[in-house]
Amino acid sequence: MNSLEVIFKDKIKFEPYKVFEVNNKKNIYTTNIGGIYEIDENVMHVLNEDGKTLDEIYNNLSTKLKKDDIDKILNNMIDLKILRLKNEEIIENDYKNEALHLPGITLMICQDCNMRCSYCFAGDGEYSNKGYMDIDTAKKSIDFLIENSEEETLQVCLFGGEPLLNFKLFKDIVDYCKHIEPLVNKKFLITTTINGTLLNKEIEDYLVKNNITVQLSIDGDEDTHNSNRYFANKVKSYDLIMKKTKNMREKGILSSRATVTNNNLDMISTFEHLYDLNFRAIPIVPAYNSLKQDDYDNVENAYSALIDYFENLIKVGDFEKANKMTIIKNSLKRIHTGYDRNVSCGVGNGSCAVDINGELYPCHRFVSSKEHKIGDIYNGFEGRKEFIKSVNVENDKECSECWAKNLCVGGCPNETMDYKKNKSEDKFNICEITKFIYENLINVYIR
Description:
The protein is built from 19 helices and 14 strands.
């Protein structure tokens, strides 16, 4: 009895994988380690025997492959973790059972907004609890981050609503971080996302002087942006933010974030418009909560066109422009590095959000949902591990068997929980779009 016969006494089961045929050559994407390997017909013969016993495989392939050749292929599959050896225990967090720590934090310094964007998930920026954070809560939050971190560099995101409505606290937090850095031997990287309507020379100079990384919410050209993003009195905002962000855009120090709705699904035109405005980085993301059932095919077509556009930029050598397409670039990085995670983002682990009262949530998108509170800055975490386990893709049967699980990693946990709770068809649609996107990107990567 050979070693394979000892290992595989029952039926052989392959881990999720996906075969890609590019330029008349077959390649396999191996989900468990995120590897891409060129394969031949002999490997395909073995893959097609999924669910068979070892003896059945030997017998079925006897006219095509020698036993030693089959053994060699199977042993290679074991090395590449394509073959399932046993049911592994589900790990509880994204960091392979390392101790939970906190490298970053989001401070909801203002749960209020001067705009009323059509797709706002935060209920007019209020998160069901309108108000402003005070300095004591902010300082305690920074102290909490330090106490629960191991990294030398910590990230602090000042968020809203519209965070510049609480600009005094914004400055106080930056000052506190600078004061405490040498005392705790840490460095703080501070980021913020703004709508741009409150920028003035004082605020701009302060942001630049203190090296604050700033992202602007802007959805594209004038008509597209104004159809989604307007003030409470329905006054449009595009012209105002163009004027107020002019200096920062010209200096190339302002990033954008475009939210795509069915008002304009042409992602290429959105990207080109924002590129012409000289934004440093240009992520473009659909607001799935704004889409109708009939929109999903159009979203796939829009993504396909955007990916083709990106590939053409690479072919003609326009790397500077391609580099600003951050969603595609980061997705290709996942493919290249063999992305291996069980939770899609730092939700509850790599980061968490602190609301205006000092309560802790997995991320800013959960702040309006009291049922997802995971503690507070005064008493620490509660139920944090349980939350992370609940959004682990390996604990979702549908996700755990999907070939794209290490790329998608279950999608946005907040959106996924909402879709499951409401038994919405949107989750299926988003899953199909996500797999479609990564199929296209892996083909691009192989080419």
